[in-house]
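[job 0412] stage=fold_complex status=start
inputs:
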Amino acid sequence: MNPEFTNGVTLMLTGIVVVMAILALLALSIEAVIMVDNWMKARARAKDGFNKEAIPSETRMMEFLSDEEAAAIGLALHEYIEMQYRQAGVLNISGPEASRWSASGRQGIMASRLNVILRGK
Amino acid sequence: MNPEFTNGVTLMLTGIVVVMAILALLALSIEAVIMVDNWMKARARAKDGFNKEAIPSETRMMEFLSDEEAAAIGLALHEYIEMQYRQAGVLNISGPEASRWSASGRQGIMASRLNVILRGK
Amino acid sequence: MNPEFTNGVTLMLTGIVVVMAILALLALSIEAVIMVDNWMKARARAKDGFNKEAIPSETRMMEFLSDEEAAAIGLALHEYIEMQYRQAGVLNISGPEASRWSASGRQGIMASRLNVILRGK
Amino acid sequence: MLENFLDNFVKVFSSTGFSAITAPNLLMLAVGCAFIYMAIVKEYEPYELLPIGLGAILINLPLHQMGNFFPVLELNEAGQVVKGFTQNAGLLGLAKEYGLFTYNILPPLIFLGLGAITDFSPLIANPKMLLLGGAAQVGVFVAFFGSMLMGFDLNDSAAISIIGGADGPTTIYINAILAPERLGITAVTAYSYMGLVAIIQPPIIRLLTSKKERMMKMEQLRPVSKRTKILFPIVIMIISILFIPMSAPLISMFMIGNVFRESGVVDRLSRTSANELLNIVTIFLMLCIGITLEGNAVCNWETIKILSLGLVAFAAGTAGGILFAKVMNLFTKNKVNPIIGAAGVSAVPMAARVAQEIAHHEDPENHILMHAMGPNVAGVIGSAIVAGYFLSILAK
Amino acid sequence: MLENFLDNFVKVFSSTGFSAITAPNLLMLAVGCAFIYMAIVKEYEPYELLPIGLGAILINLPLHQMGNFFPVLELNEAGQVVKGFTQNAGLLGLAKEYGLFTYNILPPLIFLGLGAITDFSPLIANPKMLLLGGAAQVGVFVAFFGSMLMGFDLNDSAAISIIGGADGPTTIYINAILAPERLGITAVTAYSYMGLVAIIQPPIIRLLTSKKERMMKMEQLRPVSKRTKILFPIVIMIISILFIPMSAPLISMFMIGNVFRESGVVDRLSRTSANELLNIVTIFLMLCIGITLEGNAVCNWETIKILSLGLVAFAAGTAGGILFAKVMNLFTKNKVNPIIGAAGVSAVPMAARVAQEIAHHEDPENHILMHAMGPNVAGVIGSAIVAGYFLSILAK
Amino acid sequence: MLENFLDNFVKVFSSTGFSAITAPNLLMLAVGCAFIYMAIVKEYEPYELLPIGLGAILINLPLHQMGNFFPVLELNEAGQVVKGFTQNAGLLGLAKEYGLFTYNILPPLIFLGLGAITDFSPLIANPKMLLLGGAAQVGVFVAFFGSMLMGFDLNDSAAISIIGGADGPTTIYINAILAPERLGITAVTAYSYMGLVAIIQPPIIRLLTSKKERMMKMEQLRPVSKRTKILFPIVIMIISILFIPMSAPLISMFMIGNVFRESGVVDRLSRTSANELLNIVTIFLMLCIGITLEGNAVCNWETIKILSLGLVAFAAGTAGGILFAKVMNLFTKNKVNPIIGAAGVSAVPMAARVAQEIAHHEDPENHILMHAMGPNVAGVIGSAIVAGYFLSILAK
Ligand code: NA
Ligand code: NA
Ligand code: NA
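[job 0412] stage=fold_complex status=done
writing structure:
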């Protein structure tokens, strides 16, 4: 066997090992990230009394709604939030944050999530 | 007359001839393309029993419809297609092709064209 | 004090003077532009019998209207314009200019401005 | 210290533009403002004349580097590099140098976008309209003859006469190669006359046609299948480039853009070619044209000559198209309204609209716009082929 | 004068493409048309094959300069500059030279856009899918071995074998460095087989799995939080580049695009990366690939060899993914349907769809598309790391 | 063979980044993550700090070529070319070199986009606001003085002090010319303080104004005609560039963008300047700034000095604007609320919002936002003129 060929074979084998090792390390890192994320969620839950992160994400909810529906729901819920939720005092939403919510119905979806929580309590 | 000037004049005359010749050739080629196209349409008509190509194009129909109207017509017609047209067995529409049609009302316009054909028969 | 430092200080002081002088000149130029603009408006008013430019600008009016509202108002007013305003003969709106107005409700806002003038007369 | 302070003032004021501004600069500042006025108030070709006017104003304010470009290398006679890169180049100088003079890539990019917004159906439905688009090129050749009579050499004559093609990017492309020092004037002349086509053409049309001819109706164009629309640009590209390889930069990008459009399967590429890419290139190309209009370079008799040659070219092209249409009517069955021959000069779509308006004025029931679009887009192809022809014969 | 006239005709006709066209050009014109047919009628990878086909047609029409590039400098042996810039370069030649051969920036730009449209959730929800994406890279190494057996040297073998990665931009990136003269063929081979993945993979999947395996259902993926989605690309970028610095050009841009997307605070950057920028770069990259397919350069036995090695690579990658999934099932609790291993070759998202269709065919209630997306996007990361590995070992 | 295999492993591991990473790199990786945190969670200037943070992470991962650039030419002392082009340049290294150091075209392009999104009406309605925008430039000159006291030379002092202009692209533009090695730090300092303007300004405003002053109401701005809006940018461009030609790259593009916007006839150019072009340039400019933050280059005392000088500049600019407003009130009839002087530092539009919030807090019926926008945009013009002034005096 010529040396170039031997070289190529070892290069190939090293490659498989190296690539699999790095991908395995990446997989472990992601698991670590998820663990940290879960721990932060648990801490937030312990602190706030409910789990904000567990709610289906905006994106997922949006899939089932048209923009108009989202806007309508969002605006309605923003009123609900303004009246009831802030009394509940769970979150301190005010000033620019509150107006940002009402600005766009799409962001009102976020409000609807909180609503779900409140009612679920 | 100086040679540069003579040169220029011949250049000009050659230019007119060359350009007109090429444009004439292009015109003939386009006629040839159209003949081939017509022959292919005729062959398709002979094979399928109707002339798909002769129907006013999607674009032209779309000019008279809003997106919402197109979507509505398209969805309705897709149902029609699913039920009736495939029984007629003229075209074998199924699987991803069928779902692509229903996916967007705009593509349903294509269905509406087929509808026109069917009824016209 | 070393010469570089002295140099720097004078550079700084010159800079403040130069920059303020240029900005003051710019401010004066803008005032001049506004004067010219006002003079042209006055001339136009003298010629046309009313002040086209004094009307709140399209942009400012648009802030209070949704696109749909603007479109509706614009189209309605365009009809009004077509019927009444041109009889008044104040402006000679016709042909492509008129159709450009009716083309989009947003441009109809411009018509609404003229309407305001007419009624204000 | 006070001395230093005063020194600094002197330094600042000696670096202002007042020390360097010249009368031609002031004239061109006024011309720049006039272009902006025409663009905004008259809406003559605003996408070209507005940025050109702004560029013209910018370049006639002296002593800044926005329009500068210093070559990557400065060599001495022994071929040794005396100087490398320099910071002292400006955004628009770079765009002009790399986009036009050195690489000449902006015009083909414009053509890619134009291809993606052009509908060739009216031409495909009636291919002999290509001949009308060709006949209008007679304007180019007449102007070529005129330029030689006025003493321009062959390269210059070709570069000037292409104004008669009434296609901005084609004019710019060929001038950037054959007569770069005159690029700004020829481009601006072309765009200005294109903006004025509604004033230039009608008297010529009325002169060369009878009322009866102008009232001729044309039959409905035959429908064009999607398959033909896709094959058209491919066939045009192959044949044109086989015959005139030098037409490739313009023709190939034009036709590739059109295939993107007609294929229906690469909507993203088609939209981007027709919008963002076309817009970005337009901004830079037109600002670049503007900064070629430096007063001291353009205020001379040559400019007046070019302006008159351009007018001759537009007029001759209009006449050529009309007369060829009349000749064609002698030999063919389906007669054409000779007015549409005038649309063969290009100036898309204004020349076609002029034809429509004249016909419509003679007979309010007569609509020849779509028929006029045939020679109109054919004129673009024709001019690109003429440009390729000139480059095959003349370019080094 | 008449003599002059005839001379001119001769000059024009000797400058036409007919004098220079060769049989391989004609063959490649036909191949270009075939690509366009596949793109438009069959809708196989139209965003790649349509512009590639158009570029191939263009470059096989002889004697024009659209694909030319002459170096900025020509030096003699004394290091003296013989020649500087030249006008004689074409738009696509410049894009190819600067975008690929000299600077190789087009593939990373594509990856920025791909990052901005990729949803890594299915992979984050199940990180061990990364291993399936790695296992499918076995196709690359098998093809590497095969290339060496066929007599290619190490650089060439690496450049060819990356076809098995089934990622266009990765293939182009590494070939532009290691085997630029063969770039067109390898890129086109990769895209063609990606278009044909629905034909290549099913028989291999059926061969290597039992009906029972193909009917395996997988449980719902766990939800992924926004925080994890943002951290994922940052972590992947840091670790991959720390280990394989040469993977930076592809991995970093891919992950930066993904942070833009997932952060939710730079919507304008994310949209532009995913749309206009991606579209513009696609147009030029694919036309550039097209113009590397000049008949006289590509019509040879090597091309046949590369086509067969590419097929071997795709098949071996598919097999590698499936077999690794089966091995993984021996050691883990949550078993995976081995079909999704085949999606590890990338060819996003076609290979994932193939997996879905086969599973769905066996059991209409079984939907594994989202599960297959995990190895599918993991394969992109895997191939980029393999490319970085090859470059660390081989590039000068 | 096994030996070979181990050799290869050694080769791979010696090419990983671990061998080369340093403590400053690790520090800057943390800083990069902190920027990303500020951008995403705190939403401080996300369009700048997110890509800057990503670029900072990338460049502090060692041994890859993404940030590299090797000059086109390497010359020996005899002016002979030793080396030509090299593949070993990375996408972001190229963008940094050509976009900033060699040609400095990215900042003017950003200004084109900013011009297309800026509404100058509040400034046109009350032109003396230009003086407030000028007075806030005092921060620049104070920081200039401070830099000299700290031992920086003239060029460096000018480059650092422009941070007080609170305009990212202006800071980047002048630093790329006068102090390229420090570009990253100055740009990042400017953007960071701009993000923190709501924290820096209020105490200074409260210190320098009485409650009565802060409660001052201002009368409704006079309406501005379309004609004036179009003439404004043209006039500003002509006068500024005539007096300070070196301000042309920033002022001209800013004003050209604004003419596009206000003219109403080139909607496509205006939209593209304000969207796609601005977004594309932002991506590359900010990533380029990020990759200048290489740990070993920026971790030193100078950085601390620059951070403190930047803070001084912001504070002095705020104070300068307020005090000048108070002085101006002594001489004019229509008094201004002195808070709006603070908005003269630029940091568009945050500083104007700060002014609004403070006034609104004192009196919920008082709305001075539109009045504050006047000095706010004037500050951008002011800083560009200051930059031009520095370059006229200092640049080689
Ligand atoms: Na033409
Ligand atoms: Na892959
Ligand atoms: Na400022």
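[job 0412] summary: Chain C touches chain D through nine residues (CB under 8 Å).
[job 0412] exit 0
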